[in-house]
Amino acid sequence: MVAAIAGPGLVAANAGNDAAGIATYASAGSQFTYGTLFFMVLVTLALVMVQEMAVRLGAHTGKGLGALIREQFSLRLTALAVFCLLLANTGLVVSEFAGIGAAFELLGVPKWAVIPPAAILLWALVLFGSYHWAERIFLIMSLAFFAYPIAMILGHPHWGAVGHHLVVPHVEPSKDFILLAVALIGTTVSPYMQFYAAAGVVDRGAKPADYPLIRADAVLGAVFACVISLTIIIATASAIGGTGPLNSAAQAAEALKPVAGQNAELLFALGLIGASALAGAVVPLSASYAIGEAAGVERSVSRSFRDAPLFLGLFTAQIVLGATVAMTPVDVIQLLIGTQVLQGLISPIVLVYLLVLTNRRSVLGEAANGPRYRIAATAVVVGVAAMSTILLVQTVLGWFGLA
After folding, report:
1. Which residue windows are transmembrane per the record (predicted)?
2. E strands of 40-94, at which residues?
3. Burial environment of residue 209 by CB neighbours within 10 A (0 to 12, 13 to 18, 19 or more)
4. What CATH class does 2-345 carry?
């Protein structure tokens, strides 16, 4: 049953638990212990709705998000959507390969010996395989996430405190808390995930009749991904909660040693490798899908380079750029969290496109958002936009010494 349901929704949601996501969730646990758990419950509900809308568009129209934006909006607004996605994805692709390098460094392997082969393998997976074959590999990569629930259980968290923070809101009126909250939104409801989810449904060849299974895939995938996110926060909070932000992947793994023993580094490294490899393919694919759709050219993992030169050329360029920059001495944790803050600022823009498209009966007919769903989805978009706006205002005021 799971094998029949699992697809683009699960892949897209799990890709959100990438190297940057793991760093952000771990930092949430180390800075605010269990204080962000209720906020993550709200973010989970938001992700479920957003992913469902994305796959519904793909299943009922047979078109990806980029193609629908091109058809339904002006050229300038289409360019804005593509620009926002590329801006957010550029740092992310670098961070995925940096995450792979950091994970192997925990195991004593230098990043220069790992990143180039990893880049070649991910590139070959997409260029020389079909969509269905690539999707199966992506799903297998997702198994690495089970390392984190194990780390959480070994950490023996204070379950009473965990339960309390899951149901009772906790907010701190500090810039650090808001910054992290926006980063949590950015890493969980990432713009590229919506583009990939819709395009993956189309590339899979799904039809409107397949929507019930497609919806189940999106909802279960979002819930599974967020449960993993919660276990990362809880595991880190149990080990070093309240000690401040993390500075390196090694520090995060080291923090788990008192509770997970000498296997802490191995658990953290395995999760980081699987997460980074999965997103290292999905992130550049989402941008390639979006630009290919916006340009109206062939775009499919199942096509050859001759049939889809722009689509596969863009994918190749992103892989090369990401791997090359990741080989430089970058501050991995700061890069990872920084990209999530950028994603959090850009997310509201992409979500507005998604909301408008799913509200239009001219696009989805009877499958368009109903009155209640429209209100709930609008509340999600407004909430994400409000958090991003607060962070932006605080940042600008800080430039002038007013915050």
Report:
1. 31-50, 77-100, 112-131, 138-157, 177-197, 218-240, 266-287, 308-327, 333-356, 377-402
2. none
3. exposed
4. mainly alpha
